[in-house]
Amino acid sequence: MNYKEERPWGGFEILFEETGLKVKRILVKPGKRLSLQSHEHRAENWVVARGQALVTLGEEIVRLEKRQAVFIPEKTKHRMENPGKEELVFIEVQTGTYLGEDDITRYQDDFDRS
Question: Which of 33, 29, 47 is nearest to 90 (CA)?
Fold first, then answer.
């Protein structure tokens, strides 16, 4: 499989996909962050593989280091940010009834995407 896509903040690679389950390897460049977003039809588990992370989870900010993880329920606002000087790599496990890239509601985005 290994579908890859570049994004302004870094990029991702799909490692595995089947009905109701998708696994991605996501790279975030130093000083960059993903949009503040939510998903209607999926939950996500994030595990940091390399680097440092600041995770917005609802109203709280959580700092994660290598081997630490966070669970993001459906419909919860969230964001991953790389505050470090090295690349941040994390594994995202999506589960839900619909896992398409268009199931994103963006609330704030550094790159003016809607």
Answer: 47
How much is the pLDDT for 85?
96
Label the pairing between strands 3-7 and 88-96.
unpaired
> CATH homologous superfamily for 3-106?
Jelly Rolls (2.60.120.10)
CB atoms within 10 A of CB 28: 23
Q: Mean of the per-residue pLDDT values for the chain?
A: 96
Is pTM beyond 0.90? Reply is yes
Using alpha carbons, select from 3, 1, 83, 80 the residue that is nearest to residue 44. 80
Q: Where are the domains of the chain?
A: 3-106
The Cα-based distances of 59 to 30, 32, 71, 78, 101 in angstroms read 23, 20, 14, 9, 24
The per-residue pLDDT for range 59-96, each reduced to its tens digit, is 999 999 999 999 999 999 999 999 999 999 999 999 99
